[in-house]
Amino acid sequence: MSTIGTLKYRRYAAKSPQDPDAPAKWYARAVQDRTVEFEDFVTHISEHNSPYSRGVIHGVLIDMLACLKELVLDGKSVRLGDLGLFSVGISSKGAETAEAWTTSLI
């Protein structure tokens, strides 16, 4: 494992699915060493010299998550600064014809 600043990553080799005979190329993949649970995240924020109580931060984040879910399920994407762009993604199995395709394939 290596780091850039505080970002932890690993290098890995992968072949191209479009050209399986080509030599593998090297890529980077982010590495997480643990998951911070929601309540621990709330506490973490409140310990950063915030003028807001842990309860206020908790409430704001709960409302933010509800609104984020509402917007992305309504077909919108939401950009949260440098954190990223949030949107819904789905995958499905294929059907031979449009008529044969149903939502059960999602």
TrEMBL record:
Keyword DNA-binding: yes
Keyword Nucleus tagged: no
HU domain mapped to chain residues: 7-103
Molecular functions per Gene Ontology: DNA binding
UniProt keyword annotations, A-Z: DNA-binding
Pfam families xrefs: HU-HIG
Source taxon at top rank: Bacteria
Entry protein name: DNA-binding protein
Organism (species): Caecibacteroides pullorum
